[in-house]
Structure to design on (96 residues):
C-alpha cells in the first residue's frame, strides 16, 4: 500500500492498495490474510480509507475486493490499454 498522493497533505488519510498472489497459490486465502494484516497496519499508520482500481475484465479481483468490504464508487472509462484495446477500470474504496 502507498499514499494516494504526496504533493499535498490533503490526502494523507488515503492509501492506494495493490494485491498480487502467485498464480499457483490462489484461492487458498492468501489475499484474505494479506488484507487483514494490511488493514491493521494501515489503521495504525493513521489511514482512514483505502482506494484502488481494478480492471473491468478482472472479475476475480473485483470479487476479492468486494468480499473484503470495498464498495464500487465508479468506473474510469478506457483507463487501461491492453494489447491495443482499451479497458475500463472499476474504482473501489473502503473506509477503515
Ligand atoms: C485477486 C487475487 C489477489 C486474489 O488472491 P487469492 O489469494 O486467490 O484470494 P483469496 O483466496 O484470499 O480469496 C478471498 C475471497 O476473494 C474472492 N475471490 C478470490 N478469487 C476469486 C475468483 N477467482 N473468483 C471469484 N471470487 C474470488 C472470494 O470471495 C474469496 O473467498 P472464498 O475463497 O472463500 O470464496 C488474485 O487472484 C490475484 O493476484 N490476481 C491477479 C492480480 C490482481 O488482479 N490483483 C487485483 C487488482 S490490483
Amino acid at each position: 500500500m502507498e499514499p494516494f498522493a504526496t504533493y499535498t497533505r490533503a490526502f494523507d488519510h488515503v492509501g492506494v492498495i495493490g494485491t498480487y498472489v502467485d498464480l499457483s497459490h490462489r484461492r487458498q486465502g492468501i489475499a484474505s490474510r494479506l488484507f487483514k494484516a494490511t488493514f491493521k497496519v494501515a489503521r495504525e499508520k493513521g489511514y482512514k480509507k483505502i482506494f484502488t482500481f481494478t480492471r473491468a475484465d478482472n472479475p476475480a479481483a473485483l470479487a476479492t475486493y468486494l468480499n473484503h468490504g470495498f464498495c464500487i464508487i465508479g468506473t474510469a472509462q478506457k483507463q487501461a490499454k491492453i494489447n491495443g484495446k482499451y479497458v475500463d477500470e472499476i474504482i473501489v474504496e473502503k473506509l477503515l
Remarks:
- The first strand starts at residue 2 and ends at 3.
